[in-house]
Design goal:
alpha/beta, Aldehyde Dehydrogenase, Chain A, domain 1, Aldehyde Dehydrogenase, Chain A, domain 2, 14 helices, globular, Ald_DH_C, Ald_DH/histidinol_DH, acetylation, L-aminoadipate-semialdehyde dehydrogenase [NAD(P)+] activity
């Protein structure tokens, strides 16, 4: 969230040539990367077909995959993905590179990460534009995501001089008891489409200062972002005469992901994605007694009590529910309203929804862009239909927008019970289920009754209630907010959730320990 604030100032810079809505991809003579108005893509080293494997050199012998702009479904460029042979070669080179990297003192590793952060700063606007073009989030969010990676690099630099274990009293005379932390070795990082830069940054910056090599597999639909980020990193490694395989890349699909999960050489596997796939990954890793870090789904709730400041509630609920078109893991999907304020909040929120500017992600006035894929649009429509069948009323939205791209209306549904099946189902789309409650004890229990446990928030002025919410009988989520939205996290704290969210923690606090092994 802080990254977004910093990124907003960049909008004052001279803009890049903006993409535009246009005819379907089938009518386009060339990919966007070859059109003059998208010449800025070449500043990131991109071309019509790009190698999707990096292990010290670029290559790839797998399938060629084309990525599309969600705002108009035009083809951007293609990436030749990794074959299983490419994967095998890359793992071997990454393990060899780790031997060099692990011997470098942690503060010196921090210096390399600092340089990576500086290199990202130099490309922040053009890389943020690519995130917006390929993922579909609005431009300021794309830039903010790169800023998040930069911030994590800054954080990791300081951390590189602080990681260590205690010296403990020994019961044996003349002896010392020491806890020593060492890198695990090779960290596999599988990231999702919705944050194609930031999540890799959270993992890789911390993993690197801990002394690990990294092997990245991004989402196939945002492969260009993976390639562009890796090119920036490899330049830093090359300038410092370090093995490029310290930060390896294998673009690919389920076959590569499965290989990573089953590979005993993968000392830690960090997976960000759906709960369904995350469960499969966890079982494969556990079968080999491996170590995993899971960041999965979230069915996040905002609770509004009768004493809440509604002038704070309305923009907060709007931001949490429609930001990134409902495609954040921390998106608010349930809004519990005390019965005394229910009708007023619904009326005011509906009015606020009507004022949301929907449009091209690159327009600085746009708040709300497209869904990432056509499949996501189908899932949105199916969820709206299920909500109706289960007794819900659509008071705003619920339809596909008639324009090029994957646009749907931000949607508010009322009238459902707290335990309706669709309410307990995470749909990665901008659908907000508004639910009525009377008693604090009930609504705290309803917050916790879903399978996921990522983010949660209450709005109240009651100090006692706030501490009950933060306490053992309050929210069971990994992120517990008071008078702020469910979305938005700061890098200094550990990010992650409980239950079906996976239990993993990334970014700040003591999350670094997950990337290391401890010896006593």
């Amino acid at each position: 969230m802080l990254g977004l604030r910093r990124a907003a100032s960049l909008l004052l810079l001279p803009p890049l040539p903006l993409p535009r809505a246009g005819p379907p991809a089938a009518t386009m003579a060339t990919m966007l990367v070859s059109q003059e108005r998208y010449a800025w893509l070449r500043d990131l080293g991109l071309q019509e077909e790009n190698p999707g494997v990096y292990n010290g050199r670029w290559g790839g012998r797998g399938q060629v995959v084309t990525t599309y702009c969600p705002a108009n479904n035009e083809p951007i460029a293609s990436v030749r993905q990794a074959s299983l042979e490419d994967y095998e070669e890359t793992v071997k080179k990454a393990k060899e590179a780790w031997k060099v990297w692990a011997d470098i003192p942690a503060p010196k590793r921090g210096e390399i990460v600092r340089q990576i952060g500086d290199a990202l700063r130099q490309k922040i606007k053009v890389l943020g534009s690519l995130v917006s073009l390929e993922m579909g989030k609005i431009f300021v969010e794309g830039v903010g995501e790169v800023q998040e990676y930069v911030d994590v690099c800054d954080y990791a630099v300081g951390l590189s001089r602080m990681i260590g274990g205690p010296i403990l009293p020994s019961e044996r005379p003349g002896h010392a008891l020491i806890e020593q932390w060492n890198p695990v070795g090779l960290v596999g990082i599988i990231t999702a489409f919705n944050f194609p830069v930031a999540v890799y940054g959270w993992n890789s910056a911390i993993a690197m200062i801990c002394g690990n090599a990294c092997l990245w597999k991004g989402a196939p639909s945002t492969s260009l972002v993976s390639v562009a980020v890796t090119k920036i990193i490899t330049k830093v490694l090359e300038d410092n005469k370090l093995p490029g395989a310290i930060c390896s890349l294998v673009c690919g699909g389920a076959d590569i992901g499965t290989a990573m999960a089953r590979d005993e050489r993968m000392d830690l596997l960090s997976f960000t994605g759906s709960t369904k796939v995350g469960k499969e990954v966890a079982l494969m890793v556990q079968e080999r007694f491996g170590r995993s870090l899971l960041e999965l789904g979230g069915n996040n709730a905002i609770i509004v009590f009768e004493d809440a400041d509604l002038n704070l509630v309305i923009p907060s609920a709007l931001f949490a529910a429609v930001g990134t078109a409902g495609q954040r893991c921390t998106t608010a999907r349930r809004l519990f309203l005390h019965e005394s304020v229910h009708d007023e909040v619904v009326a005011r929120l509906t009015k606020a929804y009507a004022q949301v500017r929907i449009g091209d992600p690159w327009d600085p006035n746009t708040l709300y862009g497209p869904l990432h894929t056509k499949e996501a649009v189908k899932m949105f429509l199916d969820a709206v239909e299920q909500a109706k069948q289960q007794g819900g009323s659509v008071v705003y939205g619920g339809k596909v927008i008639n324009r090029p791209g994957n646009y749907v209306e931000p949607t508010i549904v009322t009238g459902l019970p707290h335990n309706a099946p669709i309410v307990h189902t995470e749909t990665f789309a901008p659908i907000l289920y508004v639910l009525k409650f009377k008693e604090e004890e009930d609504v705290f229990a309803w917050n916790n009754e879903v399978k996921q446990g990522l983010s949660s928030s209450i709005f109240t002025k009651d100090l006692g209630r706030i501490f009950r919410w933060l306490g053992p009988k309050g929210s069971d989520c990994g992120i517990v907010n008071v008078n702020i939205p469910t979305s938005g996290a700061e890098i200094g704290g550990a990010f992650g959730g409980e239950k079906h969210t996976g239990g993993g923690r990334e970014s700040g606090s003591d999350s670094w320990k997950l990337y290391m092994r401890r010896s006593t």
